[in-house]
Each structure stands twice: as structure tokens, then as C-alpha cells.
Design a protein that fits this description.
The structure is a single chain. With 874 residues, the protein is α+β, with helices and mostly antiparallel strands. It contains 16 helices and 44 strands. The strands form 12 sheets. It has a 7-stranded mixed beta sheet with strand order 5-9-3-2-12-15-14, with no helix packed on it. A 7-stranded mixed beta sheet has the order 31-30-32-37-36-38-39. It starts with a strand and ends in a 5-residue tail after the last helix.
Length: 874
């Protein structure tokens, strides 16, 4: 039979045919003790699993599922195979929930009797090589999947491949030992080692799990202590610089979330390089593809997301039957938080709602209680985006401190358990003392979003100044949403923000101001989850990809090879939710008003009319294309420009030119991931992005100019000055314990003889600091373009003057108004040598190394300089 499934972290599986299970007794969870042998050359696996079941389930026999590629060699007690029955399956938070292109045959077994002491032993073996699913799934923002692989390139086994006896949805604990080839490292969840002295990998879950993973292969290992946690990196090839970046990032993010939420639940966190492209987060490790880990932005986006899953989803587990809350909370406290720390929170919120508007049409919408995992742009926009924005609105309602306090309590209360949206609601209600049903009920139970407008009825003078009477209007066709909407009133003396709670499709309100009102704007910083008006956002690539039906217009004058390449590109973007009709430009007099479209090819007959004649920000010449402030030559470049459909405000038209021919494949893969942009330029056959941008927006139904008509002409409104916001948490700078010790050991080594004034040892210490400042990228701040500022002490150890030097490095301020300001951070590198001028009693003539005095201070100074130079301080 064919099983519809997805890969999982914290996996959970729902069967429509019930297995009869033993309930754990004495121990809290069913446990597995596994001895595993891998044979990569043959794709084989051999397993002996000792399972503690617990108490007998009454008169009914115990049953389990196992992949049919695995042959049972022995069991105690005996088992018999029984009819499988029909069922659907779902596996947790990593999955794309798509149907594999291969049949996954399962077998269902029944124990002949309940085992003595509740302990069942089973031995089995088989060949596991299900291959990878189709590359085309990349378009739906999912990854290629497999039911399991054991091969010379590596091993990947998850519960979705039924490689161990599946006994139901209850959480489990495990211990396992793996025999593996020389040079291999096999990783699983929890605590242990990927390769011990005897060559075996040994792992213990360290707590309850909802499945067992086994991944790895021929890998190079890096590790470094990050407080109580061991940071680990497993790479296919040695790469010290890459490993160092991930080790450092691990330490930073683990510490940030420890302070924000609570203790990290495992002894390690490992980055494991996979042998195909993935982005999975398992308990205590993440499995990323070889290209993904080398994208520079991953360190500050996907990587903290996967680390945070160790709190949300892999420690507090998800009750998937009631909706997956953890992807939205993880995205909010990772992806969004990183951007908020950089002052880009508003842009992230707008982009999140832009995805929802682009991809979630009525037929694709659903309530959060039905979200299981991402398998399309629409499910991502709802399950990640709408959930994320809900947590943002909840945070604004209760305040930052209460939000931090409540999420930390949620972690304490539900660690090692499954939790639901309603458990979150109860925790927030208990912590705040407020009934939050008004918020959670529509957020979780209802599909859709509010569409807002603001109507101004009157602006009048009053005894105390001015009064503005207005209404917030919800224009969507479905029932109104109760929302808290910030409304900003711009006056001649500044901006004031008032939060209005909507009470129906129309919510009237009045605002008072001491000085003359100039403008009023609802939700000026995109804090409310809603259906954005097309005038609030620029036309974008994602707007086209989000349409159920579009037109692809090919250039009739292009050569046969180019026509085929454009046609293949369009057809490669086809999916069940994205239908593309391909036509020739010579057969089309004008664009239909009911569909978005791609205009393909530089020589397309519609291109000049739509993009060269009247589109602001675009300048077309025979040699180059002007995009905003950039000019890009046609040669060896691929271009994408999107504009609003000239006949329909809600539709978009894109012009796509691909040069050279080798660029087509890369464009097909990459463009769906540039959804928020209005224009792009790529270089070469890879192709590599060199220009990207969005057209400015000029209108919004939520902004009303209150000035007299004559005053508006030719005079722009002043910008609203809104209060600066603090991020929910700050990313701490993390110092490497190993590097700090290296500095101290060098400076305090006997070779430097205590770094006495006027000695060769002190000179060596100065040279060492010069090298460190150079490596950190600091500017020389000493004499004649060097790092040394030379001076003379009046009296040295022998009573005579002695030449010494300061080591000075300069780091310019990141802001223009900081560049000429000075903050001096210092530490002294000289010490007592052999006891001058302050000898320790009893140590006369001996070296005074100064490790706990100034060597440690200099070590901190050097590492602080590196952190600040890298721009990673909070």
C-alpha cells in the first residue's frame, strides 16, 4: 500500500486503525534498548531491540508495525503477521506531508502472548534504500524525502521508515549502540558519543522522545564546550572556519534561549551535514544539507530556528491532533527575533502578511487547529505566518515581561509532555489572570483574516484643541474579528498611538489632540494579522507564484532552443495549486484581466509596452536595464521585473529574461524563494543574485491625510515618529573558552618570564597582541601607522629609564555619529617578571607568570575586540 507521510522531528503518527498497545507501568515510558549493525556497502541493517512494554492491555493482544523490507529473525514472545488494514499517517514538525514516489510496504504483527515482565525482544535485518523523492518538491518549499537510506554516502533513518517496531503515538525512551564502518560517525538524539574508543556509536535519549533517528556517515568532527552544553559540528570534509562559525553560533543561541526560556534540555547540540539538501531539527541536533550550511544567512535564520526547536517541539512536544503551535512560536522567537534585534521587525511582519496575501486564496485557507506541517507556500503562510503573528499580537496585549514569563512557565509545565494551543491559552490565562478566549478562539478555530480600512468622519476644533472622529471598518466577507489595532495620530507637535479594540464590522472612535492633526493611520507598523490591501505592498514575484492560474507568454521571435527553455521553465513551476497556461505573444492581443502573467524573453512583443514605456524605476536600453538605482548589462545576466497588472490592481505581471541558457535551471529553483521582491538581477549560469529590490508603495486605505486639500498639493506628510521598541531578547556575545585559555597560556608561559618591564618576554607579548589585533581587523592606532605607541618609563628594574610600548587597535563606530567618538577599553600586558617592583614574599627571583591577574584580562580584551569587530555584540 502507499503511505502518505512526511519526515519528522518529534514525530507523531495517527492511525485510523487502532493498534492494541501495552501501557507503560513502573517506568513512565515504553523503552527501547537497541543493538544495531550497519552494512553501508550492502545497504543493510541488523537490529536487536529489547522493548520494555509495561503492563498487559487486558485481554487484547499487543500489536506493532514494521517495514516489510525488514525480515524478523527471532522474537520473544513469538509474533504472527496479521492483515494491515487501511490507515493514513502523519509524522511531525519537519515534514512536507507529501506522497513519496515509491510504495512503502508495511507489515503488522501481533504478539502471541504478553511477555513476562513486559519485556519483548525482537531481532530483524534487511536492506534499507528507498531513494529520494522528486526534486520538483523544492517549489513547494519542501525538501526531498526518503523512507530511509543506508548506503556508503551515509545513513538516514526516521520513524517514518518504520525501521524499528512502531507501538503507537506514546512518547518513548531509548538506548542504542551502533556498529559502524571505520571513519564513520552516527548521531542520534540525546546524550552519548558518535564514536567511542571501541568504534561504536552509543546514545541515550536523555528523556522522552516521539521517535528515534539515526543519521551520519563518513564525517569530520569538531566540538567545543558551551557552558554545560557540548557544541558539535559534523562535516563531510574538514573546514575549520565553517566549523568555528557554527560552534560559536551554537554557544550564543543556546545561551540566549537558556536565559529567555529555561535550561537547554540535552548535553549536546550538533550540526550534522547531510548527504542531500535538508533543513531538519531533531532533539539535540540539526540535519542540514551541504549547500544550506554554507549559505551565510543560515547562521542567523534557519540555524537558530533549529536550535530553538529543542525547547519547542523537541522538548515540549506537539499535540498534532489539535494543531501545530510550535512552528509559529519557533519562527517568532527565532527567525523574527533575529530580525527584530536588527531593527527590521516591521519589515518582517509586513513580509509575513504579504506571503499570506499572495499564497492563501480562499480555497487554500484553513484554521490553525488543522495545521500539521508545511507542504506548500500556502500551508507555510498559515501555519508559520498566521501563528507567528498571533504570538506577536499576544505579546503586545500582555506586554514583553508577561510574555517572557509565560513562555518560560509553559516550558517548565509541559517539558517532556505533549501540549496544545489550549494548553498555551491556559498558561497565559493563569499567568495574567485574564480570560483570553476572545483572542484564542478566533485565532485557532477560524480561517481567514480581517481586511481593514479607516474612515474619517470629522475633524473639528474643541476647547482643548482638536477632535478626530473616525471608524475602523472590516471589509472582509466573513464574520468580523475582535482585534486590538494601534492607531497613530500625526499632529503638528508629534505622533500619539492609541490601541482600538474592534467590536464589529464598524468600530467608531474619537481621538483628541492638543495641536492640529495632520494624518491618521491604522496599524502603522504592521502589528495586526490581517489581509493586506494590495496598495500597502509592492507587486512581487510571490504574488505571481501564489495565483492558482497564470499565463506564461513566450516570445514568438526567439530561437527554438530559447523557446523550449522558457516553456520548460514555466512547466517546471506547474503544481496542483499553480496552473500555468503557455501561449505565444503573437497569439495574444492583450493580457486577460483575470490572471497574473509571466512575459518571457527580452524580445517578447508585450515587454516594451508593459515595462519599457511607462513603468517608473525601469529604463530599457539596447545595452542594459535600469532597475531602481542600479544599471545591469543584458549580457550574461538574467532579469526579473514585476509590476501591477495594468487592468487589475490585485494581479501582477512579471517580465523574465534569462541569459545565458545555463541560467534557466537555477532560475527555476531560486525564483520561488525570492517572493517578496519586485525586481531581481542574476549573473552567470549559476545564476548569482546581484540586484534585488521592491518598488515603493504610495497608497494605503489605512492612512488618511487630514490636511486641507490645498495644503496637500506638492507637500509630503512628515514622517510619523513612533517609539523605538526593544527586542524580546538580546543575543549575547560568547567568548570561546578554548581561545581565552590559549591567550592566557601564551602570556603566562615560562618563555615570557613574567613579562617584566624591559624584557624580551614583554616584547614577545606585545608582538602577540599586534598579531591578534591584525587578525581581528582593527586599525593600527599607534605611531606611524603601526599598532605600537612607544614611550619611556623614567625608572625600570635597574633604576634607569626603559623604553616600553602600548599596543593600540582602533574599531570605528558602526554609525556615522559614533565614528569620531572614543571609548577606551584597556588591560596591561606587563607583569612582575621575577619580582619587580612588587615581589611576592618567598618568591624572590622566581617567575611571576600573572595568569590570574593581567593575562586573563588581556585575553578578555582580545576576544572582546574580535566580537565587536565582527559586529556580533548586542
Amino acid at each position: 500500500m502507499r503511505v502518505s507521510r512526511s519526515l519528522a522531528c518529534g514525530a507523531f503518527f495517527v492511525l485510523s486503525v487502532g493498534l492494541v498497545l501495552a501501557q507503560p507501568v513502573g517506568a513512565e515510558y515504553i523503552t527501547h534498548q537497541m543493538d544495531i549493525a550497519l552494512d553501508p556497502a550492502e545497504g543493510g541493517i541488523t537490529v536487536t531491540d529489547r522493548i520494555q512494554l509495561g503492563s498487559a492491555p487486558g485481554d487484547e493482544p499487543v500489536e506493532f508495525l514494521l517495514s516489510s523490507v525488514l525480515e524478523i529473525e527471532s522474537t520473544n514472545p513469538p509474533v504472527e503477521q496479521v492483515p494491515l488494514g487501511e490507515f493514513d499517517g502523519f509524522f511531525g514538525i519537519n515534514g512536507a506531508s507529501i506522497e513519496l514516489g515509491t510504495d512503502l510496504e508495511l507489515a503488522r504483527y501481533r504478539l502471541a502472548s504478553f511477555p513476562e515482565g513486559g519485556v519483548m525482544t525482537i531481532s530483524y535485518r534487511g536492506k534499507v534504500d528507498f531513494g529520494l523523492s522528486a526534486q520538483k518538491e523544492e517549489y513547494t518549499r519542501g525538501f526531498r524525502e526518503t523512507a530511509g537510506i543506508v548506503g556508503e554516502e551515509g545513513v538516514y533513518l526516521a520513524a517514518s521508515g518504520f525501521w524499528y517496531p512502531y507501538l503507537g503515538e506514546e512518547l518513548i525512551e531509548f538506548e542504542l549502540a551502533v556498529e559502524q564502518p571505520a571513519g564513520w560517525h552516527v548521531i542520534s538524539q540525546g546524550n552519548g558519543t558518535s564514536r567511542g574508543e571501541d568504534g561504536r556509536a552509543v546514545w541515550s535519549s536523555g528523556g522522552p522522545m516521539d521517535e528515534i533517528y539515526l543519521v551520519g556517515g563518513p564525517l569530520v568532527v569538531y566540538s567545543e564546550s558551551a557552558g554545560a552544553v557540548e557544541a558539535q559540528v559534523y562535516l563531510h570534509e574538514a573546514d575549520d572556519a565553517l566549523a568555528e562559525k557554527y560552534l560559536k553560533a551554537t554557544a550564543q543561541y543556546v545561551e540566549m534561549y537558556r536565559e529567555l526560556i529555561g535550561p537547554y534540555p540535552y548535553e549536546k547540540f550538533a550540526l550534522v551535514e547531510n548527504f542531500w539538501e535538508t533543513g531538519y531539527g531533531m532533539p539535540s541536533f540539526t540535519l542540514l544539507g551541504p549547500q544550506i550550511i554554507r549559505f551565510p544567512f543560515i547562521l542567523n535564520s534557519s540555524y537558530p530556528h533549529e536550535i530553538l526547536h529543542n525547547w519547542w517541539g523537541n522538548s515540549v512536544f506537539v499535540d498534532y491532533a489539535t494543531g501545530n503551535w510550535c512552528e509559529g512560536l519557533t519562527a517568532y522567537m527565532a527567525d523574527y527575533l533575529i530580525q527584530e534585534q536588527r531593527g527590521k521587525g516591521e519589515a518582517y511582519r509586513r513580509a509575513t502578511m504579504q506571503k499570506y496575501r499572495n499564497h492563501v486564496k480562499e480555497s487554500r485557507d484553513f484554521p490553525l487547529k488543522e495545521f500539521r506541517s508545511r507542504h506548500s507556500a500556502a500551508t507555510e503562510a498559515v501555519g508559520y505566518g498566521k501563528t507567528l503573528m498571533g504570538f506577536h499580537m499576544l505579546r503586545l496585549h500582555v506586554g514583553d515581561e508577561a510574555f517572557r514569563r509565560t513562555t518560560a512557565r509553559f516550558y517548565r509545565d509541559f517539558r517532556n509532555q505533549r501540549a496544545s494551543f489550549r494548553d498555551l491559552q491556559a498558561t497565559f490565562e493563569n499567568e495574567t489572570g485574564e480570560d483570553l478566549a476572545w483572542f484564542f478562539d478566533p485565532w485557532v478555530e477560524r480561517p481567514g483574516a480581517a481586511a481593514l480600512e479607516i474612515e474619517v468622519r470629522e475633524v473639528r476644533e474643541s476647547a482643548g484643541g482638536f477632535v478626530v472622529s473616525a471608524s475602523l471598518v472590516q471589509t472582509q466577507s466573513i464574520e468580523f474579528f475582535e482585534l486590538e489595532v494601534p492607531v497613530a495620530l500625526l499632529t503638528e507637535s508629534g505622533t500619539e498611538v492609541t490601541v482600538i479594540r474592534t467590536t464589529g464590522t464598524q468600530t467608531p472612535f474619537t481621538l483628541e489632540a492638543a495641536s492640529r492633526p495632520l494624518a491618521i493611520q491604522a496599524d502603522p507598523e504592521f502589528d495586526v494579522f490581517r489581509l493586506l490591501d494590495s496598495r500597502e505592498i509592492p507587486p512581487s514575484i510571490g504574488q505571481i507564484f501564489g495565483e492558482p492560474q497564470i499565463l506564461a507568454v513566450l516570445p514568438s521571435t526567439a530561437g527554438e532552443a530559447a523557446l523550449k527553455a522558457y516553456r520548460d521553465l514555466a512547466e517546471g513551476w506547474q503544481s496542483d495549486s499553480h496552473s500555468i497556461e503557455v501561449v505565444m505573444d503573437s497569439d495574444l492581443g492583450s493580457l486577460p484581466a483575470d490572471r497574473s502573467a509571466w512575459i518571457m524573453g527580452r524580445e517578447n512583443l508585450l515587454a516594451e509596452r508593459l515595462f519599457a514605456a511607462d513603468l517608473a524605476g525601469v529604463e530599457v536600453t539596447s545595452a542594459q536595464l535600469g532597475l531602481g538605482d542600479e544599471a545591469v548589462p543584458w549580457a550574461d545576466h538574467s532579469m526579473v521585473i514585476v509590476r501591477r497588472h495594468p487592468a487589475t490592481l490585485d494581479k501582477a505581471v512579471g517580465w523574465l529574461v534569462a541569459e545565458p541558457e545555463a541560467a534557466f535551471a537555477g532560475l527555476g529553483r531560486k525564483l520561488p524563494h525570492y517572493g517578496k521582491y519586485s525586481y531581481l538581477a542574476f549573473e552567470g549560469g549559476e545564476p548569482t543574485n546581484v540586484v534585488k529590490g521592491q518598488w515603493p508603495t504610495t497608497d494605503s486605505p489605512l492612512l488618511v491625510d487630514l490636511r486641507p486639500e490645498g495644503e496637500r498639493q506638492g507637500t509630503a506628510l512628515p514622517a510619523m515618529q513612533l517609539a523605538e521598541r526593544q527586542a524580546l531578547a538580546d543575543l549575547p556575545p560568547v567568548f570561546s573558552q578554548a581561545r581565552l585559555m590559549e591567550h592566557v597560556e601564551f602570556l603566562a608561559s615560562p618563555d615570557l618570564e613574567g613579562r617584566g618591564v624591559g624584557t624580551a618576554g614583554l616584547d614577545k607579548a606585545a608582538e602577540y597582541l599586534v598579531q591578534q589585533f591584525e587578525q581581528a581587523g582593527l586599525e593600527p592606532g599607534g605611531d606611524d601607522g603601526t599598532y605600537l605607541q612607544r614611550l619611556t618609563m623614567k625608572e625600570g628594574p635597574d633604576g634607569s629609564p626603559v623604553d616600553v610600548a602600548n599596543v593600540i587597535g582602533v574599531l570605528r563606530g558602526a554609525r556615522d555619529d559614533w565614528k569620531d567618538q572614543v571609548v577606551i577599553v584597556g588591560a596591561h600586558i606587563d607583569h612582575l617578571g621575577r619580582g619587580w617592583p612588587d615581589v611576592h614574599s618567598g618568591d624572590e627571583g622566581k617567575i611571576h607568570p600573572g595568569a590570574d591577574d593581567n593575562a586573563s584580562g588581556v585575553a578578555v580584551l582580545v576576544e572582546l575586540a574580535k566580537v565587536l569587530a565582527e559586529g556580533e555584540a548586542p
